[in-house]
Predict the structure.
Amino acid sequence: MPYRLLRFGLTRKHPEPRMFTRHDSLKSGYDVVIIGGGGHGLAAAYYLARDHGIRNVAVLEKGYIGGGNTGRNTTIIRSNYLTPEGVKFYDESVRLWQDLGEDFDLNLFYSTRGHYTLAHTDSAMRTMRWRAEVNTHYGVRSEAVDAAFVKRGIPMIDMSCGGHAPILGALFHEPGAIARHDAVAWGYGRGADRRGVEIHQQTEVTGICLRGGRVVGVDTNRGSIATSRVLCAVAGFTPRVLDMVDLHTPIYVHPLQAMVSEPVKPWLDPIIVSGSLHVYVSQSARGELVMGASLDPYELHHTRSTLDFAEGLSAHMLDMFPFLSDVNVNRQWAGLADMTPDFAPIMGVTPVEGFFLDAGWGTWGFKATPVCGKSMSHTVATGRNHTLLEGFTMDRFARYQLTGEKGAASVGH
Amino acid sequence: MKIMTCPLNGPRPVSEFAYGGEVRHSPDADTCSDAEWSAYVFNRSGSPGVKYEWWCHIASGFWFIALRDTTRDMVIATYAAEMARQPPQPQGRTN
């Protein structure tokens, strides 16, 4: 054991600065209370303090920061969406990602890999061309490519996919990237903490106090707080928080599972997604293959893992990469995905004054972390929806104006 | 949850079943307001709890109702839809 680590373990005073300050008690009131210390909540706190000068902010997290979906996703960042609203939103996010590491003074292991969405049928090829056109129109680098291009980019792939799903082409999205997901939560957390934001872990919100349709406070397991503005960024726990303010939304919760293999030598540079085979995979900086598939098929508020999932995903991985048959699976886990009927998020102001929502992120929230933080902090600071949130507001359902992003979900959920 | 008891076919592996969503009652389309109708079309009870749900045994195409705890992934009871007039009562919500 290195001497430095031993000294660190034996001392009562931590000689190294911690990532963020531990606060023993809650204050009696804050300008803004953010429920949920994941990437989205911490990013909103960071931008509130940095760009809007609102520093009297508390982030309440019932577990530990980044322990929810921020630490459970497969870390893919892309902006090759289908609707103009989606493309603009995620493209802004990809731009923010690129200099985030410098902003934080923390290595996020942001690694641009290129992103292939494989097409195994003519109709999938048609969707890829459609997405490429929409993307190009908004200045996002995406192109529909043929099978020879795919083979050059991923030489190890079996182009026939075991003979039953031959690859006809793909949507190639050059800026597609991966990043170290928990560093994102830590980076935002540390940045917010240094600017005066208080992060309270192990603090569960048990109720939200309303008076005359306005937010006046929050009850927690560590006491009550007065506040006039609450931002809810709790992913799979959103319906439970919405019950506290009696708001009804289309959000429903299904688990989404993922797994990693044991580390192997680097052989897979790009990120591969196949909608037909229900697989997305990339190789992490540590050499593990990070793999995900579609949602579990029924509603559940539990993060259990299933053998069905591991078997199904492994079989499809072997269709594409038969030589992996000797590689072991190391870990398997699940997160709770808050789904919406149109596969677009629900964000912005709500009918309850002072209650702001950043939810419905389902299976695709990690890549949007910076832009969500930025646009939600603007919305909370001004009380009005940021222009990028157009198309994602809660009232779109009553107007039947859905923002259909299902075609751009990575796999057919 | 690995085994589900189909009211028609008995205990079967859960992979033979498809989830059909919560049992819901539509408002009268002729008399309800636009807001009530859009709320019926889109909104769901997303919180965890003990819920009545439609399930289908795919192999036999048989639709039935299951009373399921969505927090613990446990089926409490299953029964054919004809019995819906006197369904078993949930033992309170679990949060």
